[in-house]
Amino acid sequence: MKLIDAHTHLGYWGHPFNVESNAEGLIALMDKFNVEKSLCSYLDNKVVEDAVKKYPDRIIGQVWEDPNQGQAAVDDMRHHIKDLGFRGLKLHPLINGFVANAPIVYPFMEEARSLNIPVFFHTGHPPYSLPWAVGELARDFPDVRIVMVHMGHGHAVYIQSAVETAKKLPNIYLETSGMPMHTKIKEVFDTIGEDRVMYGSDIPFHDPSVELQRMKVTGITDAQMQKLLHDNALSFC
Ligand SMILES: [Zn+2]
Q: Is this structure's pTM higher than 0.90?
């Protein structure tokens, strides 16, 4: 089966992570695990732009913006989408320090709506990136697809909140990287539907072999696995 990885990064990530990856390393990992395309972002959008130019069929760029930078960042986002072929917006409330549904985020959501692009939110760390706050934003923008990256991440309370928020709001999608509970992935298929959860690795923070092992033990059907590992991410590529 060919895979799509809905969550990867390039570049160097300093303290406390101390991990890095480059375009060649990412492509090598993709080849090793039969991944045909990866959605990819980094703090410095130029690094992703160069990688997309080199591997346009394999690496899908997501523009990273910090809402604290205001209108200049909205303009930069539009430029990357309209002129440089980027396909989505990545927002990271934890790294950039803002509440997911703070007023400064709204101009980015309005621009995402007019550009018709999805918005990927890191989720799972208090106080900034909790699923409830992303849900509030999703209620205000029912016509923008919002992906809860890590689907609540490491804490069962946050994971369950991501699942329940997605259950109530059809514009919420979930991505699996770093989320330890394989049972929650089956729960999404059983209670929300087949099309709103997708596999991601979070390279270089996690290794695909570990992330994929969790997918393998979910107990979902082969047809559902095809959606989880590939089909559900297609419309974000
Ligand atoms: Zn990430």
A: yes
